[in-house]
Design goal:
The structure is a single chain. The protein has 2 domains: about 200 residues, TIM Barrel, CATH 3.20.20; about 60 residues, DNA polymerase, domain 1, CATH 1.10.150.650. It is about 40% helix and about 15% strand. The two termini are about 25 Å apart. It is of the alpha/beta class and about 280 residues long. Strands 1-2-3-4-5-6-7 form a 7-stranded mixed β-sheet, with helices on both faces. The structure holds adenosine monophosphate, zinc ion and fe (iii) ion (2 copies). One fe (iii) ion binds next to loops.
Amino acid sequence: MSGIDLHAHTLHSDGTETATELVRQAKEAGLEAVAITDHDNTDGWQEALAAGVELGVDVIPGIEISTRLEGGPSIHLLAYLPDPNYEPLVNVLREIRESRGKRVEKIVENLATVYDITMEDVSKFSKGDAMGRPHIADALIEKGIVKSREEAFAGILHPRGGFTIPQHSPSTTEMVRMVRDAGGVPVFAHPATDRKFRPFVEADIELLVSAGLGGIEVGHRENTPEGKIWLAEMAKKYGVFGTGSSDWHGKGKPNKLGENTTAQEVLAEIKHQGRSL
Ligand code: AMP
Ligand code: ZN
Ligand code: FE
Ligand code: FE
């Protein structure tokens, strides 16, 4: 088997494994290339790139950026190969992580009115500073309040579960432009999940493409079957590429490395559009 998987998380956000372990498991799964795309930071890049050289796996440095469509739904924006030192990007990522921390504190405060849980219980599950609900879930598991991250997300940590609050995020169109300015390639992550809020429509795709979107993540286990067909049509119509990836989180999610893959021509296009490292 060979394949290219362009979406994976490590301990630097809400995955459960190190960056080296990601690359090791990618090698074991027979992947020729894997992207490290932690939420809102680039802290795992160096380790992943070094492991890639060591193990002969092509490691693509990326980020999954938390953004929001002006006044609307949140969007995860994958950014491949941006300059990690481009100052506006460094600053906005820091702001997102700070607001992640404040959000988690507020959610834990809400939970503490009912459950025996403190910020300390949660912090120990977050290696970096990109905290999120999965780390709260891990603390809830440790305390025997839920059995899995899945159970936590389906109930206590669900947006309508009564405890969580929305994440403050920068505008998606502004981030698409900023990723391009940083020499990166912006890709719309899992746009066709079964959303409780308004689903994405063609006008959203059109808006993002006009801002500079490079591609759409078509192959993702959370995109609905009809959604995948629609996304492939949109990619073709608007002249952007389609990717397929696992969104691996180690033991934090059932997603398996290589369960969705990206064509070699598409990776070549991403490298062509992105800045050369
Ligand atoms: P947050 O960053 O706090 O908004 O939490 C969203 C993150 O939680 C995403 O990265 C998802 O991958 C992860 N997530 C969402 N639903 C689940 C679930 N059912 N089980 C495990 N992780 C999940
Ligand atoms: Zn995640
Ligand atoms: Fe995501
Ligand atoms: Fe992800």
